[in-house]
Fold this sequence. Notes:
Among the domains are: about 100 residues, Phosphorylase Kinase, domain 1; about 180 residues, Transferase(Phosphotransferase), domain 1 (Orthogonal Bundle), CATH 1.10.510. The chain contains 9 helices and 10 strands. The radius of gyration is 35 Å and the shape is globular. Strands 1-2-3-4-6-5 form a 6-stranded antiparallel beta sheet, with helices on one face. It has a two-stranded antiparallel ribbon with strand order 7-10. Helix 4 packs antiparallel against helix 6. It is of the alpha+beta class.
Amino acid sequence: MKQGDVIGGYRIISEPTNANGGKCIWAFGEKGGHQYFVKRFLEPKRPRDDAADSPSVRIRRQLAREFEDRHRTIMDRLRPDARGGGNLVLATDFFHEGSTYYKVTERIDTTSLEKPQALEPRNKTVLLKTLGNSLKQLHDIDVVHGDLKPLNVLVQKRDGAAFHTAKLIDFDDSYVSGKPPEPDDIAGDSVYGAPEWRRYMQRDDSVGPQHLTCAVDVFALGLMTHLYLTGELPHHDSRYGSPADAVNAGDSLDLDTRLSDEILGLLRAMTARAPGSRPRIATFLKALSDPKVCTLQHRRPGTGKAKPAAGPPTSAPGSAKPSGPGARTSRIKAKNLTSASGPRPKTPPPERPRTPTEADRPATPAAPATPSTPVAPATPASPAPPPSPAGDAPAERTSRVRINLGDRRPRPGSS
Length: 415
């Protein structure tokens, strides 16, 4: 195929390329005054009708027949004029010329929004719902897209439209649920592929064709939802090459905790290892009924499972470990230790010594301070002030620091 050729009635008007084409070469074509996207498959090759019979020819004929049947079956089920198919970019023609297969779709604008995560929550909701509805249309007729990833979704906004929508393209790798191609022939993307798809490709005995169902798309949609809402895929241990590999190994994906509780629960279910544990697309759409679920939340510490921090949280040596967001310490709390309810630092600030209470005073004279205990500068001895009422300070708040500072007069205005 080269520019200027006429193939199947389509005149090629651009230089063919393999850019993002996988096992295909594509170009733009023209027929009857309309422009089309013409794709040439590099394999399989269809044996000539007059080819001499041989074992290898019979195998090639069988592969070609299965290839044709799969594409024609999908085209028969997904009609361009089907109700609700406005966001599906479907094939209009499929044929072979000589030993090579070709597929044709209408030429469309292939520009796509680069950063869907920058959209407002309501716009994100509309985007995800249009994508979900397109998948639901496939799944309702037992068709698996088979290669769901951002490259095959065009995020666009029509002139005069209020919201961006998602157009689903490239059904070359689609198949009927439970009837995928052989492991050597099945396509897909290792990053967005489902755990059972990965094991099927690796010829794991625990996975057969019947295990590759519409749940394959649900796993990919869960990953893409995380990407569209946060700008990143869920994180996983670097030992694994893909989310599916991590899930197959029994690890959980690290979801962004800024996501709402509703979305976090939904994505955990959508990325489950067992296909039967994943929700249907109808559940996905129902969860998006309220646009607020697509709002990112900056949670307070301790209210959600945080991502691994760069280092351990700092705290005063010997202080109690905070148990929640209310256990934070501050300068103000340090200055009012007699009334604070949070954890007490080991060494209080020396600039505001407290008046010792009767409960603080020992029965014997105070012992000299140890070298590790900060002691205020010595002052002339003075009579001890009268004892305060026992209720002014709890009896359990005793410390060596207060004993050492007990012979000082309280500063005016101190409590």
